[in-house]
User: What shape does this take?
Amino acid sequence: MGISLWETLRDLEASAGTALEARNAAADLGAETIGEPQILEMAFDARPPVSLPATHASTNTLLPQRWQQLPIPSALHRFANQDMASKSVEALLEDIRFMSEERYQIVAAVRAFVKQHFKPFAEEVKYGGILFSSGVQFCGVFAYKEHVSVEFGHGAAIRDKLGHLEGSGKLRRHIKLASVADIESKQLAEYLPLALQAARSAA
Assistant: This one.
């Protein structure tokens, strides 16, 4: 686990985006992700500094001594000592909206589409994004600094006749969305059933 301090919202966005991109790059290379990305979001003000706890609540991991007394201005700790898996989808959407209204609109539109067209439908917050299932888990949506990524855990098995899939890992592929309009222009609706079929075949 790591702890970072951000002076500006831009620094926070860059840190969050870098962490998620690193996780995806590792997964594309076949690495197994252990644990969840943690973001400590802080709105700085003029109140006195606060101290961090000596252990992380969800992992019981002892923090280094130099991290136990940090001069952090009092803040809004949306993710402090909270396991990402325990967050609700609505809470994650709220946090994405706080970071970027545009990214929020894309994520919300993808989520609404999947929820409408796939039954049974289930979702969970994991790896910093929303994973969707319809009998089996088949895709997820993740917000980054400059785009939203719809990721397919078994995307390599999809015959990409439309040419919108990205990635070269053993299993995973993704589609990058820079706007709500990209959902249609990159023909996401055509890929989702193929992603579900690939996931079912791998189950």
Notes: Residues 10 and 112 are 28 Å apart (CA to CA).
